[in-house]
Design a protein that fits this description.
This is Rho guanine nucleotide exchange factor 7. By secondary structure, the protein is an alpha+beta fold. It folds into two domains: 5-110, Roll (PH-domain like); 123-270, PH-domain like (Roll). Helices cover 17% and strands 42% of the residues. The chain has an eight-stranded mixed sheet. The longest helix is centred in the middle third of the chain and has 20 residues, at 91-110. The radius of gyration is 21 Å and the shape is elongated. Residues 112-117 and 253-275 have low confidence and may be disordered.
């Protein structure tokens, strides 16, 4: 799916707080950087994440000149993740990584990713169990345009996920949304027509919203989301399984969450993009 390998090597992931290191194996594809850890006992790789090159920022890190055994380090970061610092085995290896990543980043901006390089188009509609599980992993590493707030990895592990249609009093017609349930929030994303790109549309804190059943009839699988800081949203699901999953999760006792409301942005720009 990700094409040919451009470059790969063993590096060390540097923890800036503890100053400790852990082995990692980096694999650079045309549009993605794959991070693997090593299980020496099983002689196997362990998946740690895959990052889109187009959204990465990269820089070499220089320590004090008189530092003994100055390591050859570079840092990668993006709006969707915490920065990571890697140590290469040599100055030559460091230059290879910088050159290859910068080169692939430039080319990825010139040449948009085709469906063969982007798993999103294969996972939506997420109408099968394996698609849902893969999509959850994809969201934690994918670029999401106009993202706001802390990195998505800090929101916890995704739960329910499905494509829905949303009706609200601010906009005519239906808006298709990818709705994702996190431990403390409901995340709303939109997907472009080619199913290649995601856009942030807002998030709703679970403890401040209510789900009201409207209709569980085939063809009208609807429930209403209400809250003090938002206009009511009518959510239409595509199948009964999605409908009952959302109703069950959103009607759970809300006092489990005691995080103050002020810590949340209930909606994007206080409107959840019009919601």
């Amino acid at each position: 799916m990700y094409g040919e390998i451009v470059h790969s090597s063993l590096v060390s992931l540097y923890n800036t707080y503890t100053q400790g290191t852990r082995e990692r194996f980096l694999v650079l594809f045309s549009f993605h950087l794959l991070i693997l850890s090593l299980d020496h006992s099983r002689q196997d790789f362990i998946y740690e994440g895959i990052l889109p090159i187009s959204g990465l920022s990269l820089q070499a890190i220089s320590l004090e000149p008189d530092t003994p055994q100055t390591p050859h380090m570079f840092e990668i970061s993006s709006p969707m993740m915490d920065s990571k610092v890697f140590i290469c085995a040599s100055a030559a290896e460091l230059q290879k990584w910088i050159q290859h990543i910068e080169d692939r980043k430039y080319k990825s901006m010139e040449q948009p990713m085709s469906p063969s390089h982007c798993a999103l188009s294969y996972l939506i509609p997420c109408d099968e169990h394996w698609k849902r599980e893969e999509l959850k992993n994809y969201l934690l590493q994918a670029p999401i345009s106009q993202w706001e707030g802390s990195p998505i990895q800090h929101m916890g592990q995704p739960g329910c996920i499905s494509m829905v249609h949303v009706i609200n009093t601010q906009r005519p017609g239906l808006q298709e949304r990818l709705m994702v349930l996190f431990p403390q929030d409901v995340l709303l994303l939109s997907v472009d027509n080619k199913r290649l790109n995601l856009k942030y549309e807002g998030r709703l804190p679970r403890h401040s919203i209510k789900a009201l059943e409207r209709s569980a009839l085939p063809g009208r699988l609807e429930f209403e989301l209400t809250g003090e800081l938002m206009e009511p949203l009518l959510i239409s699901c595509t199948c009964q399984e999605d409908y009952w999953n959302w109703i069950f999760q959103l009607q759970q006792v809300r006092q489990h969450s005691r995080t103050p409301l002020k810590q949340y942005k209930a909606v994007k720009n206080n409107s959840c993009d019009g919601y």
